[in-house]
Amino acid sequence: MPLVVLALAALTLWSCAPVSQDVGHLRRDAWSLEEPRSLQVKFMRFDYQVQPVGGDVAGVKGWAYLDTSRVPDWAKWVDSLVLTVYLSDPEGHVMAQDSRNFLPRAASSDAGVPFEFSLRPEQWGKRALFVTFGYRVVLTEGRDVQGGKQTFFASEDAITR
To answer: Would you tell me how many other CB atoms lie within 10 Å of the CB of residue 47?
Structure first.
């Protein structure tokens, strides 16, 4: 019985521990206000600009483009798309993030997806900051394909530690 109580206590303490996220494994770009930037990741390109919003909030606004040359030829429809922006310190520890879900659409490298995020870190500090993007995308053969629909999934996101 004491072993069960000890195990439950350890589980409770573990579940209350703060969860941290890390983006050190992702391509990052130095934080730069009001300067147009572009960040190419494995399956997408993000053209963006960081804008001060007011107070302790910064906005990240831009366009995301699917790199259709890196996905299967049959992948013509974006069935699901989630984009996330991360603000991190030099070690890749996430200080703030914001995510958005987007409606299904045709898969195109020319037609970008407009996005607008707000970042509110607990504190800004004086250290160098970095911005990076995460995504989860599900591509299919077409909008209304029935039966043996093929699916392609790609994702680059923060790691939870």
So the answer is: 14
Domains of the chain: 21-160 (2.60.40)
Find out whether 28 and 131 touch, Cβ atoms under 8 Å: yes
Q: How many CB atoms lie within 10 A of CB 121?
A: 17
Q: Tell me: pLDDT of 13 over 50.
A: no
Residues 127/90, Cβ–Cβ less than 8 Å: yes
Sorted by sequence, the CB contacts under 8 Å of residue 82 that are 6+ apart come out as: 99, 100, 101, 102, 135, 136, 137
pTM passes above 0.85 = no
The Cβ of residue 123 has, within 10 Å, a number of other Cβ atoms equal to 7
